[in-house]
Every structure is written in C-alpha cells, then in structure tokens.
Amino acid sequence: MASPRRVLQTVLLTVAVALVPTLAVSAANAVGTGSPVIVTPADGESYYSHEVPDLVVDFGNAPYGSYDWSVTDADSNQVLHSGTFDYDAADPDQNDLADLTDLGLGGYTATITSDGGTVTSSFGTFELGPPPVECQIEVAAVRVVGPTTAVYPRFHGCEGQTETWAVRHRVGNGTLTFGTFKVVNGKSAGPWRFKDSWPTGVYAIRSREMYGYNTSTVVRLVSRISLTAGTKVGGHFRISGDVTRYVPSADGFRGWANRPVAISYKNCAAGCAWRFLGTDHTDSTGHFSSTVTSSQARYYRATVGSTTSVWGRTSAPVKR
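Given the sequence above, the corresponding structure tokens read:
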C-alpha cells in the first residue's frame, strides 16, 4: 500500500497540471515573432489608376493583437487612409483593409505596425499612373545607305496628343540614347536621323510617358548584288555578279569579300517555285562566277544573306 505522503504528492501534481491553461494557436502565433505582410499593392509595383487593388495584408505569421495601418503620399507624407485592425483567431490570414480607388496619380507608401510598435512594421511603395493611351508609333527597319539616314515614323491613334519616344541602344554594359521621335498635337515632329558612325543592331523606342506605347527597330547597312548570264554554248554558260555593301568609313559601297552566294532557278516566269542550284563565294573584290549547264531556258537569281550588321539582298532574275 502506498504511503499517505506519496498519495498526497500525486494528488497535488494532478491538480497543478489541471490548472495549466492550453490555447490552440499556430506555431508562428505561439512564438509571436512574425510580422504582417502587405500583399497588395505589391511593393515596387506600378498600377493603372483605375485598376489599383485594395490594401490586403497577410497576418498569417503575426501574433494576435491590434495593428495600425496607413497609406501616405510618398512626396508629402500626407496620410490619405488609416485605421486599426484587431487580428484574432476568428480572422482569416489575409484581410482586406481598404479600398484605394480614390487615390490619384502619383507614388504612395503603405505601412502596417502593431499598436505600440512591438511588432516590426511592414511597408511597401507603389505608383499609380494613367491608363494606357491609344497613341502608338511604328518604325520600319532601317537601311543605311549614306552618312545620314532619315527615318520617318508612322503614328496611330495620336489625334490631338503630344508624346516623345527616346531611341536607345545598348553599348557595353549600359544603354545610350541616340535621339528621339516626337508627335505634337497628333502630327509628327519630323524624322529621326541616323548617323552611320552609330552602332547597328536593335534600337529600343521607349515612351517617356509612364504607360506609353513602346516598340523597337533594327538598323543595318545596305548591301547590293548584281547578276549577269553569258552566252550559252552547248548548254553551258557563265553566271556571274558582284556583291557590295555600304561601308561607313568610306561613305560609300565597297566589295563584300568572302561571302556565300546562293544561286537558284525556276522554270517559268510566274507560277512556279524557285529551286536551289548551288552556292558560290565572292572573291576579295566581291565578285563571283560559276558555270551552269542546262539544255532548257530558265530563270536564275543570286542571294547574299544578312548578318547582324548588314542586310542581305537578292538580285533581279536573268533568263538563259
């Protein structure tokens, strides 16, 4: 039989355990070190003014309690919306705190912190811009044939509007601006003038408006190709030509050396497909020449392909 002292110890221990309260909480809430997180508007994001989302905060990793929140103008620090939210076990993790559709254009900061500042504050910055406009710019591929090439844009839906686009190109690790396009009261302010000392390649055309229309164009030097066919003797004849390209340092066209030239043919003037015949190569002066054998009359053409800096070209057809 247990001694009276041991029985008393057991009863006291049982009573002590029964007096300890229990609370069903998540691990994060039990620790109480989490912070509320602003879900929308997302930090660093830009929105159209008519599509700004509500202020939504995720309290899933934050302890229960009262939280102060506010939305302020990023420039003046004026408080435009504010309030207090009491977070407890009855609330979902994510809570919609405010409708922000009355905010105007500009930058804003959303902040939330616990009452008394015992929990690290969470904040995010966002911008509101005007809805996208219909004014669009179209720029065709640019073919450089001289020291200065005038590039004329086409505008769509720009009636009565004024807007500027910067023409940019990546150089090394940075991006440089090489002029602008501009529409004034719906009319073009003139061409962009490309100088042959500038780099070739892709140029980004970026609107200076927050939500303006952006596009791009490709700039390359022009090439030329000629093709002639000699007299046919016994079904054999010579086919030859010259390939040149514009050279900025010479301000003119020079022979394009060591370039492959594709020769193709077809059996009728119209209504039949071109077929590949063979490949020739230009010499150091840009000249090429090959012997062709054919017993029937056909049409021939020569093509030099494009590179990253020079546009390719196809000759006019010749008949033999």
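The helical segments are 4-18, 27-31. Try to locate this feature in the token string yourself.
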